[in-house]
């Protein structure tokens, strides 16, 4: 997935290339914006204002970013293991379901300090399990994990729909959603946590999940680059033959990387279900799995890049929502388009740009060596 | 072909090569690894262009820039790895690219008539309507020849055709080739099997080190002459200036014993057949032979990367059978180390920094991993020490593995396998130890291998460089066609004996040449 | 045939069900054929969903603006081929990852269609309904009506007559694609390129040329699928109207083992399941099966479950073209 078949110095690979691809995507998006009669620079200005210009804006931006961090980490972990996890949507759906089921079962009996970690665990386990099945099919039956995870996305949506309509629907309620779990199943909001410290903060969906996301970033970094499991995972992703030579079992690695990926995707459910909605409802994932692909690609599959990219996307989502109010011609779909363009340039077209940079770099270093 | 030169980087693959082939004859081209025969034929078929020299086909100067020019000139080539589409029928495979009609049913009719005539004429029996995946290997090869002939090949190049055939299939092939010769087709046979040359060819050219060393009609030569020419006169050179090393006592402990290893690949071709060997403490055993005769598979089987279908392995007091074969992890636990032939794909993870590649295979040792976490500082320190001891440059453990030159990568891998966290391995398997390594480092690496033996270990070396085998080994096993063709203690290794074994002739003295 | 008191009703039910099946299966068939052609040549196409969506939008927009069926269709085809060529540029000419490219096309199309729709028509992302002149007329509808009362024939007429041209075209195209792949020189070379491109290269045929041509056909077929949605099934474009059909078509292609006629059968099966789930929505299960409502979601999920089961090798083997997804780099 990365351009490591072409030799590029790390600073080009990790900084120049993603920025270049981002610029290309923004350029094309800007053309689209301009072609529908809007002023691109004005759009950018208002976007940034909507995202960062107020505490409410920051709150929403960070709330969106939290979801994207989880989704991006999920995709990144799988990439490092040599797999493309498109199943983030389904795994996130199941994660939310897991958290919700735990809440429905235990909310009446357990206090918040026990229930909330249990919900997090439930989300991770469900997400992990949903990724484990395609992984096992790939490892033992050779079924292509890309196709199976896409299928599983749809199956997850159908499963959730069926459960909501037939089993979990709050009685007497017209809308398709479960009953509310109750206050002890709701993660503390940022306004509550800061309020406890004496800081005034407006009420936004931003909740304690953001701390979980930060923790997840650190953990993923530690696991990938400092742990034995991460060593084995990265070796398998880069060089499966060498990994086998090194005593690493390839099937086990497929399982482990996908399960870790699924668990991370499941945490999206924590942010949404345990952090905001406090009930189960359909389509709370809303494309986060695909956004995670874009985030991971432009963030070069590294937690630092993912955090930056998530902030960017969070800003785009929040700023976009604000902008949709202020400018009648603008809609959030512009952000989805930009997302797609980023996947296009940073993902698919990466092999078009990378050789160009390699040649440029070679030419410049040659000239430098000759002249120096 | 006159005066053909071809250089690849530092290697002169062909130097002033002259090759004259009479029309309607079978001409053998013999050589061991790196002799230049494949390069020469690739030039003839248009895969490469010669740096210097001319080519004349049927008396006329020819310019061959790519394989299509070659085909247009009537040159056809049958490669070692068949270019066939498994799911299509044999007929479709022949037709592809030269279909006489855009409607397949019409095209097949037109082609079938011509093909059937060709089949009857040449005796190349191929069932045209079966998908290729259902055809046995010998039939697939006949199909490849048919393909070349269908495109009007009057000169046919066959690259090691008998490598994948059973003896019966080989006999059938020879019959076919004789019939083709009778029809006026010129055949160039690239092979290292000297017996085949004597049986089939009208003339033979022996190459060594990029040059032609012998060019003669068959009637005027014999197996011994060919064997000597193939191997050359440098046998004793390697040993003269080595410090005398005491030969291992014959009753030294057997560290590794393999019995009857057998393995067939996906096509059913036996790549290993009844291979047995024993490694004793303190000895270096060399595996010689033309590349592709099972040496790689042998190393893979012994190190656990390949599970054979037959045979047993005894190592470190444990016995392994195909049902529970050794794994790379277990092998390392039993103090067997392996320097793979393909260091880029196997031995290193190229994007990893050196300090991570340096523990590949040993990442689970307590020294490097504690409670699931890698001990990076220790790894880097050990890497620096390894680099110091084995003179790996640049001495930077943080540098990406891919940035090191081939020689330095090899030294790093060897350092890793030979060190095994301060305890030398008991058995070291090494494939192509000095490929791509500069001269100074070669001496160093050889010294290290010898030191390992002096410490009581055993080394198994596979090398395509006969010089290296002769310089290092106490005894030499020659592999041919997946079998061990013969074994010679180093004192009895002379050109003739080695050449005969490598050229797949019996080890007993050959009858006097006619 | 059971004859109930209502005078042949179950048969009529089946007739309408079959009619719905054909209507719903048509976009699947066209997309699955598009995927077949592309993947048989060795190029993975995960962008079918996005292509279909963008082409539907193009048809809807052009149809509304121009009032001409021909122009609407042309617009769809132009967009479809353009997207496929982009796919080819990134993945065939350069070594871009085919899976990622497909995802990129789908994501971009989802957003772009709504953005342009809002900007041009200001109808919340929809295109204005196209006039009847632009839409496809049902063929032989009068014959179907005439036969309505007749016991068996009426049901059959209901099922197979009265559809618009694209429905029949889909079936014909399935046959045409089969003929192209298995009965022509081009098809032979295309299939070889998907199995062993090195061999095709060595035989003197350009693998890149073959793949681009396959992608062009893929673009046209996907465009027809998109056009059908707007010009026949509904009458305007609405955001995300493809609703996962592109992926279901992919599943059908795999279920049909990459064979056009197999894909046709699979699409009919999936279309039937879709029609059944719509028909059965709200109906109650007999007490024998536990009562309660029919689990429509289960029926909707069935195509995907079946595909997974097939891929896992539990109901026969689905062998993908050997060189699928691998970028072809010319050796030497």
Walk me through this protein's architecture:
The complex is a heterotrimer of chains A (about 375), B (about 525) and C (about 325). Chain A has about 375 residues and is mainly α. Chain A is built from 15 helices and no strands. Chain A has helices spanning about 10-35, 40-50, 55-80, 90-105, 110-140, 145-165, 190-195, 210-225, 230-240, 240-245, 250-275, 290-300, 305-325, 335-350, 350-370. In chain A, α3 (about 55-80) crosses α13 and α5 packs antiparallel against α11. Chain B is α/β, with parallel strands linked by helices. Chain B has a 6-stranded mixed sheet, sandwiched between helices. The longest helix of chain B is centred in the first third of the chain and has 19 residues, at about 105-120. In chain C, α12 (about 260-280) runs antiparallel to α13 (about 295-310). Chain C has helices spanning about 10-40, 50-65, 70-95, 100-120, 140-145, 150-160, 165-185, 185-195, 195-200, 205-235, 245-255, 260-280, 295-310. Chain C contains 13 helices and no strands. Chain C has a domain at about 25-240. Residues about 1-10 of chain C have low confidence and may be disordered. Chains in contact: A-B, A-C, B-C. Chains B and C meet through α2, α3 and α4 of B and α8 and α9 of C.
From the structure above, extract its key features.
heterotrimer; A: 372 residues; mainly alpha; B: 514 residues; alpha/beta; six-stranded mixed β-sheet; 18 helices; 22 strands; 34% helix; disordered C terminus
In terms of topology, how is this protein built?
The complex is a heterotrimer of chains A (372), B (514) and C (332).
Chain A: H1 10-35, H2 40-52, H3 55-80, H4 88-106, H5 112-141, H6 145-167, H7 190-196, H8 209-226, H9 228-238, H10 240-245, H11 250-277, H12 288-298, H13 303-326, H14 333-348, H15 350-371
Chain B: E1 2-8, E2 11-17, E3 26-30, H1 37-44, E4 52-57, E5 60-62, H2 67-72, E6 75-78, H3 90-95, H4 104-122, H5 137-150, E7 155-159, H6 167-183, E8 186-191, H7 194-200, E9 203-208, E10 211-217, H8 223-231, H9 237-240, E11 254-264, E12 270-280, E13 284-288, H10 295-303, E14 310-315, E15 318-320, H11 328-333, E16 336-339, H12 343-347, H13 354-357, E17 369-370, E18 373-374, H14 376-390, H15 406-419, E19 427-431, H16 439-454, E20 458-462, H17 466-472, E21 475-480, E22 483-489, H18 495-502
Parallel strand pairs in B: 3-8, 3-9, 6-7, 7-8, 13-20, 13-21, 16-19, 19-20
Antiparallel strand pairs in B: 1-2, 1-4, 4-5, 9-10, 11-12, 11-14, 14-15, 17-18, 21-22
Chain C: H1 9-40, H2 48-66, H3 69-93, H4 98-121, H5 141-146, H6 151-160, H7 165-183, H8 185-195, H9 197-202, H10 207-233, H11 245-255, H12 260-280, H13 296-311
């Amino acid at each position: 997935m990365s351009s490591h078949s072409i030799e590029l110095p790390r600073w080009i690979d990790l900084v120049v290339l993603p920025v270049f691809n981002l610029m290309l995507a923004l350029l094309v998006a800007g053309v689209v914006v301009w072609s529908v009669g809007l002023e691109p620079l004005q759009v950018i200005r208002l976007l940034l204002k909507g995202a960062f210009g107020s505490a409410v804006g920051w709150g929403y931006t960070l709330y969106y970013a939290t979801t994207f961090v989880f989704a991006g980490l999920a995709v990144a972990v799988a990439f490092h293991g040599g797999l493309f996890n498109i199943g983030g949507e389904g795994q996130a759906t199941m994660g939310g379901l897991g958290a919700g089921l735990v809440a429905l079962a235990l909310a009446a009996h357990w206090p918040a300090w026990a229930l909330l970690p249990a919900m997090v665990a439930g989300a991770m386990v469900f997400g992990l399990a949903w990724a484990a099945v395609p992984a096992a099919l790939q490892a033992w039956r050779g079924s292509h994990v890309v196709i199976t995870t896409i299928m599983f996305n749809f199956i997850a949506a159908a499963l959730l729909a069926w459960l909501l309509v037939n089993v979990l629907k709050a009685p007497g309620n017209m809308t398709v959603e479960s009953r509310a779990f109750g206050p002890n199943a709701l993660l503390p909001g940022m306004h509550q946590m800061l309020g406890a410290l004496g800081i005034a903060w407006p009420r936004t969906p931003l909740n304690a999940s953001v701390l979980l996301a930060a923790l997840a970033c650190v953990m993923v970094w530690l696991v990938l680059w400092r742990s034995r499991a991460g060593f084995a995972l990265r070796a398998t992703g880069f060089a499966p033959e060498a990994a086998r030579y090194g005593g690493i079992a390839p099937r086990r690695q497929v399982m482990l990387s996908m399960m870790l990926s699924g668990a991370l995707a499941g945490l999206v459910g924590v942010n949404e279900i345990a952090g905001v909605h406090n009930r189960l409802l359909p389509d709370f994932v809303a494309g986060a799995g695909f956004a995670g692909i874009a985030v991971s690609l432009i963030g070069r599959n590294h937690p630092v890049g993912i955090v930056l990219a998530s902030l960017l996307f969070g800003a785009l989502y929040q700023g976009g929502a604000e902008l949709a109010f202020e400018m009648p011609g603008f809609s959030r779909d512009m952000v989805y388009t930009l997302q797609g363009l980023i996947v296009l340039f940073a993902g698919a077209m990466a092999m078009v740009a990378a050789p160009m940079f390699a040649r440029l770099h070679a030419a410049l270093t040659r000239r430098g060596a000759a002249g120096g | 072909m006159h005066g053909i030169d071809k250089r690849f980087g530092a290697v002169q693959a062909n130097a002033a090569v002259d090759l004259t082939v009479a029309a309607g004859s079978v001409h053998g081209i013999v050589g061991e690894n790196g002799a230049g025969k494949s390069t020469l034929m690739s030039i003839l078929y248009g895969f490469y262009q010669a740096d210097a020299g001319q080519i004349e086909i049927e008396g006329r100067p020819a310019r061959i820039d790519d394989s299509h020019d070659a085909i247009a000139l009537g040159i056809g080539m049958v490669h070692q790895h068949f270019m066939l589409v498994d799911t299509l029928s044999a007929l479709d495979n022949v037709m592809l690219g030269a279909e006489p009609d855009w409607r397949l049913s019409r095209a097949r009719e037109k082609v079938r008539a011509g093909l059937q005539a060709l089949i009857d004429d040449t005796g190349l029996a191929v069932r045209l309507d079966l998908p290729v995946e259902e055809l046995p290997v010998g039939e697939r090869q006949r199909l490849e020849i048919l393909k070349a002939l269908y495109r009007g090949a009057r000169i046919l190049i066959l690259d090691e055709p008998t490598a994948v055939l059973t003896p019966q299939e080989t006999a059938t092939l020879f019959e076919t080739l004789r019939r083709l010769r009778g029809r006026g087709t010129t055949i160039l046979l690239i092979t290292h099997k000297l017996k085949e040359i004597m049986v089939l060819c009208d003339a033979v050219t022996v190459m060594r080190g990029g040059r032609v060393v012998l060019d003669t009609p068959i009637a005027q030569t014999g197996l011994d002459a060919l064997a000597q020419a193939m191997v050359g006169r440098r046998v004793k050179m390697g040993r003269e200036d080595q410090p005398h090393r005491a030969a291992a006592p014959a009753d030294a402990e057997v560290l590794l014993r393999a019995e009857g290893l057998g393995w067939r690949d996906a096509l059913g071709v036996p790549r290993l057949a009844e291979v047995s060997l024993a490694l004793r403490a303190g000895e270096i055993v060399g595996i010689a032979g033309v590349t592709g005769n099972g040496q790689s598979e042998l190393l893979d089987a012994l190190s656990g990367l390949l599970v054979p279908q037959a045979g047993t392995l005894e190592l470190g007091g444990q016995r392994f059978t195909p049902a529970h074969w050794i794994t790379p992890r277990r092998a390392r636990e039993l103090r067997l180390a392996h320097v793979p032939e393909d260091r880029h794909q196997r031995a290193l993870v190229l994007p990893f920094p050196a300090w991570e590649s340096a523990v590949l295979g040993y990442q689970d040792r307590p020294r490097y991993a504690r409670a699931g976490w890698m001990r990076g500082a220790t790894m880097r320190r050990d890497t620096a020490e390894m680099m110091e001891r084995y003179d790996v440059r640049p001495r930077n453990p943080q540098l990406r593995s891919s940035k090191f030159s081939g020689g330095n990568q090899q030294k790093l891998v060897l350092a890793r396998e030979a060190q095994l966290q301060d305890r030398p391995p008991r058995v070291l398997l090494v494939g192509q130890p000095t490929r791509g390594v500069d001269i100074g480092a070669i001496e160093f690496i050889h010294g290290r291998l010898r030191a390992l033996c002096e410490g009581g270990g055993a080394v198994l070396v596979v090398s395509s460089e006969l010089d290296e085998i002769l310089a290092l080994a106490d005894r030499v096993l020659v592999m041919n066609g997946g079998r061990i063709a013969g074994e010679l203690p180093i004192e009895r290794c002379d050109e003739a004996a080695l050449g005969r074994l490598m050229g797949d002739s019996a080890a007993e003295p050959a009858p006097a040449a006619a | 045939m059971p004859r109930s008191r209502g005078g042949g009703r179950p048969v009529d039910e089946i007739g309408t069900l079959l009619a719905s099946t054909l209507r719903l299966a048509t976009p699947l068939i066209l997309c699955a054929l598009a995927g077949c052609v592309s993947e048989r040549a060795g190029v993975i196409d995960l962008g079918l969903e996005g292509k279909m969506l963008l082409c539907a939008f193009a048809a809807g927009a052009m149809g509304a603006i121009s009032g001409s069926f021909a122009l609407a269709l042309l617009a769809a085809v132009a967009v479809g081929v353009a997207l496929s060529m982009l796919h080819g540029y990134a993945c065939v000419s350069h070594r871009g990852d085919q899976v990622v490219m497909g995802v990129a096309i789908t994501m971009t199309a989802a957003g772009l269609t709504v953005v342009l729709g809002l900007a041009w028509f200001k109808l919340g992302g929809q295109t204005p309904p196209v006039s009847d002149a632009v839409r496809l007329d049902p063929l032989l509808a009068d014959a179907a009506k005439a036969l309505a009362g007749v016991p068996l024939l009426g049901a059959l007429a209901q099922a197979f007559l009265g559809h618009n041209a694209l429905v029949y075209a889909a079936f014909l195209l399935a046959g045409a694609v089969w003929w192209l792949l298995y009965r022509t020189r081009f098809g032979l070379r295309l299939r070889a390129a998907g199995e062993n491109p090195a061999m095709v290269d060595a035989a003197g045929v350009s693998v890149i040329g073959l793949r681009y041509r396959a992608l062009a056909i893929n673009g046209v077929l996907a465009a027809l699928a998109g056009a059908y949605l707007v010009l026949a099934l509904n009458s305007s474009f609405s955001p995300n109207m493809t609703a996962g059909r592109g992926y279901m078509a992919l599943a059908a292609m795999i279920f049909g083992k990459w064979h056009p006629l197999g894909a046709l059968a699979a699409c009919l099966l999936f279309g039937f399941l879709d029609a059944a789930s719509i028909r059965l929505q709200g109906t109650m299960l007999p007490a024998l099966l536990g009562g309660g409502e029919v689990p429509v979601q289960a029926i909707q999920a069935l195509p995907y479950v079946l595909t997974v089961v097939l891929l896992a090798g539990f109901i026969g083997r689905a062998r993908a073209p050997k060189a699928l997804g691998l970028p072809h780099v010319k050796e030497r």
